[in-house]
Amino acid sequence: MAGILAWCFLAWKSxxxxxxxxxxxxxxGSLVIWALTGTVLMIVSMIILQSxxxxxxxxxxxxxxxxx
Length: 68
Prior knowledge:
The chain is an all-alpha fold. It is built from two helices and no strands.
């Protein structure tokens, strides 16, 4: 969720005319940092969600398997 919020903030900040923002300016660097932060947060959250789902499936399969 934090990654999506970072991307929303980036979109809100980039509404201004993009002709004024240069890639090597402070504002351009700030937008890149926000974009990277949002992307990294979304990737990390997807990894966490996948690992939780895998653990839940593994636990469910162990409950179905009888113990010897």
